Amino acid sequence: MAAAKHFTYVILGGGVAAGYAAREFAKQGIKPGELAIISKESVAPYERPALSKGYLFPQTRLPGFHTCVGSGGERLLPEWYSEKGIELILSTEIVKADLASKTLTSSADAIFTYDTLLIATGSSVIKLTDFGVQGAEANNILYLRDIDDADKLVAAMQAKKDGKAVVVGGGYIGLELSAALKTNNFDVTMVTAVKLKNGNVLEADIVIVGVGGRPLTHLFKGQVAEEKGGIKTDAFFETSVPGVYAIADVAAFPMKLYNEMRRVEHVDHARKSAEQAVKAIKAKEAGESVPEYDYLPYFYSRSFDLSWQFYGDNVGEDVLFGDNDPTAAKPKFGSYWIKDGKVVGVFLEGGSAEENQAIAKVARAQPPVADVEALKKEGLDFAAKV
Ligand code: FDA
Ligand code: NAD
């Protein structure tokens, strides 16, 4: 058996959270050789959201979108990791994790041990084969999670120029990819949460499936407390096993603002949870502490020339405002969500940076609303006054 390689800190997974955690470790101070990132992927951490947007056109290629450019930060090229003495262990899938002995084993039988582990394995794609759909193995059925998937998609789009595509799923992937396919001159049919039991046949050169993901927690089953399908953590992202942290998509953490446990599969939380965990780890080592994670949910998407942001919670009564006429030159519209007489969430399409900041402030402050009709009329002006 090969000798184990030991690191003080291991980040398992090499996606968004790994890149932001590595940057935070470097900021806080680590010695060469202390930190390793182990990733199944063959490239250094990158901003995954690019895969369903710029990558499909394709003007966006690596190294252009390595973390942390997505939040306006420094682009961490592979050289950055070597300069900092951070070991990037790529194309390496961990197939066994033993938290009791602090040991990870790869599919090639390499063994890694650690003092502190950050689980950042993200989500897997739900496949049609998971539903036992007939013919689901066909090679023109495509998914999108990582750069290899995106390369297959781009190749299929180029091979079937101006062809027909069926998109299964009307979530984020479905919407963003339908827009990208349409812009690439595909004839697109979306199928959302509908079973074509009636025998209808939809002709397609390619089929793209975006029917959700599942947090990749299987390596830790039975070894760590779970909740909401993820790994349960405290407000510092430490799990039920001391010294083991779970961040980003896989973490079920206390959402302080709503006083309940939540799991969030979006990039803003991936970045912020990574930074929080590393700060907490380093503070603990120094006998200090950091404030609890106090996250304001933030989601965004872009398709065609539309671009929206959402802050807070979409629960309760929704109050639409603004001009949502699709023929308007620059439609600007949104919605407030009101629960227990307070605004708890705000969506805005086509907002400026200042307007988006204003809606974020509203979702955080949760101002009371006495008159829903007046709010509807006031629209964005209400947010500007908070
Ligand atoms: P992430 O998936 O980024 O990384 C997980 C890493 O772990 C991968 O490198 C994986 O290979 C590795 N891994 C898993 N198991 C392993 C094992 N056993 N051994 C070794 N390595 C392993 N969000 C948003 O807010 N706005 C957006 O526009 C988008 N757009 C978007 C597009 C597409 C195509 C996807 C798939 C997702 C988005 N998202 C998004 C969601 C966002 O990208 C997602 O929430 C973060 O990437 C989560 O970060 P993680 O680090 O948890 O997982
Ligand atoms: P999703 O959960 O957003 O959407 C899944 C969609 O598939 C839903 O509309 C659901 O109704 C539909 N669906 C489920 N089962 C179905 C079935 N059997 N037949 C037809 N439709 C079915 O997941 P996604 O769009 O696949 O995205 C995967 C992950 O990537 C998520 O974590 C998501 O948050 C993330 N992502 C986020 C963004 C963004 O934030 N802008 C962009 C892309 C991806």
TrEMBL record:
InterPro entries assigned: FAD-oxidoreductase/Apoptosis (IPR050446), FAD/NAD-bd_sf (IPR036188), FAD/NAD-binding_dom (IPR023753), FAD/NAD-linked_Rdtase_dimer_sf (IPR016156), MDHAR3-like_C (IPR048618)
Keywords: FAD, Flavoprotein, NAD, NADP, Oxidoreductase, Redox-active center
Positions of the Monodehydroascorbate reductase 3-like C-terminal domain: 296-383
Membrane-spanning residues: none
Catalytic activity: 2 monodehydro-L-ascorbate radical + NADH + H(+) = 2 L-ascorbate + NAD(+)
Molecular function GO terms recorded: monodehydroascorbate reductase (NADH) activity
Documented EC number(s): 1.6.5.4
Gene Ontology cellular-component annotations: cytoplasm
All residue ranges annotated as the FAD/NAD(P)-binding domain in the record: 8-193
Entries under Gene3D superfamilies matching the protein: 3.30.390.30, FAD/NAD(P)-binding domain (3.50.50.60)
Top-level EC class: oxidoreductase
Keyword Cell division: no
Cofactor names: FAD
Family of this protein: Belongs to the FAD-dependent oxidoreductase family.
PANTHER family noted in UniProt: APOPTOSIS-INDUCING FACTOR 1, MONODEHYDROASCORBATE REDUCTASE 4, CYTOSOLIC
The protein's name in its UniProt record: monodehydroascorbate reductase (NADH)
